[in-house]
Amino acid sequence: MNKVIIDGNSLTIEDVVNVARNGYFVELSDEAKERVKKARNLVDKFVEDEKVEYGITTGFGKFADVVISKEDAKKLQRNLIVSHACAVGNEFDTEIVRAIMLLRANALAKGYSGVRLSTLQMLVDMLNRKVHPVIYEKGSLGASGDLAPLSHMVLVMIGEGEAYYNGERLSGKEALHKAGMEPIELVEKEGLALINGTQVMTAIGALAVYDAMNLLKASDIIAAMTVEALRGITDAYYHRVHEVRPQKGQLKCAKNLLKLLEGSSLTTRQGQLRVQDAYTLRCIPQIHGASKDALEYVKKVIEIEINSATDNPLIFEDEMKVVSGGNFHGQPVALAMDFLGIAMSEIANVSERRIERLVNYQLNDLPAFLTKNGGLNSGFMIAQYTAASLVSENKVLAHPASVDSIPSSANQEDHVSMGTIAARKARNIIYNVSRVLGIEYLAAAQAIDFRGNAKLGNGTEVAYKLIRKEVEHLDEDRIMYIDINKASKIVDSGLLVKEVEKAIGKLE
After folding, report:
1. How many domains are there within the chain?
2. Is pTM, for the whole model, over 0.85?
3. 173 and 29 share a domain?
4. In terms of CB atoms within 10 Å, which end of the chain has fewer, N or C?
């Protein structure tokens, strides 16, 4: 059985993907179980001693100064969940819901949150038995954690809300019952521990980073095909050009391009056909490389966040101490997600400009709009429109969410991150990028066909053959969205990168 063992400290982005998308089984490590028990023992002691501690024996937010009696402590936790379940909009995809549940469980497994082991185990069991709460996308400010959407997750744990089980949408209680589980009653600190964290924005972010890593490699492959189709000059990728400006991503991209194009009879040398190419060909390493560097930064932020304790207050059992802090504030993730959105928008931006160079007969020596009988056929004319539309939409989506803040909780929570909005926008941008790259992939293959039976590069030949297995050459106009969807699926599924790397080795 494929499984991931969580201990609060060693989860990887690949683990998140395997649980979220591939249904891997999840287990708690023995060390994590012990830490959770010890932290809970301290919470129980404070409750018994009626010590005033935020979120344990007090209200929340602006009500932090309201002391709650021992008799009302359990009701306080339930009230917290039902009152905070205010998310609206579309439902999150199942893969995001699963990633959210995994990350919340991993954060609790660190042993700083004070939940009972049985409560944490229930969250893990829901994952393993595929009880997927209905969680709505909108409603988080990204500080005080992702309170509203996470509350929808917890509703199911207490037998409320809704969930999917075996593809059927049911009440939370019924979904648990069919999975052989019973609702729980939350005790002191548990409601707050379950919803006060950055797990929604981080779950979206982890999957977005994984997808972006694939798309950046795919963009190098597809750009290399366009270089061949336009008989581009490879001198611009010469290693010494990039070594004198040693930006890491730039160096990686230039190396990738030469590796992909090695053996090609279509590429040219400086002065052979022209002295210089346009920027969209000549500057691929500089443009793609900058996005690669941005992604490296974002990836590090997410790798830290998925193994962090982000609720409040935190239980330091070894010091017998409870501390109110601000780890729930999503600013690190918010900035990173905005950066990711901007970086990936540029990949679509330059891809669309390469599409224009492929279809515009004034900029190349190919048939107008890559069709033999122009006028009767429109060829790739409107495919370029679609790419332009997606790029324009990305420019709107790339406006940073993190520069905004609206105070909440009667100005107690007077600066918020909007990190979940930033993460959702980045995910939408990445979808659009995959479609623009799919259109360039089709256009580059079509243009290569017009070059005759030329020898392609070692990597681009694999890419060309892969698309031609699914989509034949466009002789006459046909329904284009079908071709675009096929090409985009090859791109965003990771198949393109996988097959090319199988042939020529790992790309960077």
Report:
1. 2
2. yes
3. yes
4. N
Alpha-helical regions (H) of 275-380: 279-282, 284-305, 331-359
Task: Please count the residues of the chain.
Answer: 508
285 and 434 in a single domain? The answer is: yes
Residue 365's identity, in one-letter code, is D
| Residue carrying structure tokens 């972006």 | 212
Contacts with 374 (C-beta within 8 Å, 6 or more apart), sequence order: 367, 368
Q: Residue 446 has which token pair?
A: 């079509």
Q: Which residues, in sequence order, are CB contacts of 245 under 8 Å at separation 6+?
A: none
Kindly state the DSSP code that residue 70 receives in the 8-state scheme.
G
> Of these residues, 54, 165, 441, 464, which one is catalytic?
54
- Tell me how far apart the alpha carbons of residues 453 and 279 are, in angstroms, rounded to a whole number: 27
Beta strands 136-138 and 162-165 are unpaired
Q: What is the CATH number of the domain that holds 235?
A: 1.20.200.10
> Pairing mode, if any, of strands 321-323 and 162-165?
unpaired
The answer on 32 and 148 residing in a single domain is yes
Q: Is 164 tagged catalytic?
A: no
Whole-angstrom distance, CA of residue 335 vs CA of residue 325: 20
10-residue mean pLDDT profile of the chain (508 residues): values are 96 98 98 96 84 70 68 83 96 98 98 96 98 96 92 98 96 98 94 94 98 98 98 98 98 98 97 96 98 98 97 91 91 97 98 98 96 96 98 97 84 84 98 98 98 95 98 97 98 98 97
CB 423 within 8 A of CB 302: no
Beta strands 25-28 and 3-6 are: parallel
Query: Are residue 120 and residue 221 in the same domain, yes or no?
Result: no
